[in-house]
Here is the input.
Amino acid sequence: MTIIDITRKILHEGPICDHCLGRQFAKLSTGLSNDQRGAALKLVSSMHAGAEKDEELKELLAKNAIIPHFNEGIKCWVCNDLFLDIDDWVKKSIEALSDYEFSNFLVGTKVTGLLAENEEILWAESGTTFAEPLKTELNREVGKRIEKITGKKAYLKKPQVVVLLELENNTVEVQVNSLYIYGRYRKLIRGIPQTRWPCRECGGQGCERCDNTGKMYPESVDELIKPHLLEAAQCDDTAFHGAGREDIDALMLGDGRPFVVEAKRPHKRSIDLSALEEQINMGAEGKIEVLGLKFVESETVEKLKSMKVDKVYRMKIIHNTTEEKLKSSLNVLCQTPIKQSTPTRVLHRRADLERIRKVHSADLESYDETTAFLVINCEGGLYVKELVSGDDGRTIPSVASLIESEAKVIELEVIKVG
Here is the structure.
């Protein structure tokens, strides 16, 4: 079929605007808008009809040349004259975006069932294979005008905001993508979890046990960061993503543990991260410290969650053995794969699995008759408290099993992650 043949079939279906006619041939040329293609097709078809004395085509063109409105009161049967309203959609979009700071955007369209059906009928009846969807053209045309008015660029891959044109109810929705900030935190006091821990009794609803706070602990690393980011980004909420977590009673020292904090639906994006870092650290009053804040992409969260890194711990233990036996036990741990079942203390929230982990080095930092300080460099995922206690045989070997006496961690510090 020639282009004229396809155009004839399209015109047979009913009155059609230049946009919708041109869109059926969108893949055939570049540098033209669809309405320009449509006008050109009507012109060429008219010339062809005159040259070939094709009265049928002349009649179809006379009936269907509706935009500009040669036939008053007749609308395009495909889009219902949607493209006459582009400027209105642009105005609504800019008003909806006015409350958000962004440097790039994307336009999307949610079409009505009727428009989608009209388009499918036209493709089937005309047999065209060169068309693009109606919403693709509308997205592009609205996007071009928003670019011109705002000076911001449309960005297909990772837009900061998405303007969604809801054709059914004639409204615009703005979808705002999260802002991600990477850093490291140091936890300088014990008794603070990484994230909010709902009360076990009430499940977070509030009860007498938790003093109606809904929490097991009054604050967390996340909650010490959150209010400052809420204010800086003027966002709806935040989410905290850590590279693992230390025990509540452990310190996190050294250069800190990597984390990403996510600002959900932020109104502001140009945040002074140095100032934010200072505000968080001042507000934490020596409980935590954050450092090295920087903007990252969303993929960093997945990398953070899946990263397997070695860790170094410093721990104070109580024991009842000689210095020689303790040193000997540490040497054995460095030479033997550690078989470790999920610790009893976390079985209520983790699957009961056996893991094989390695201890890279284990040093006795200091010793007296009842206590000692150990420094353990080990593979990520090793439970070091159980490496000392043995957890009733669930960790093999352990310090306790090797010295043939009880041993227990009473203070724990994470001094290096990765």
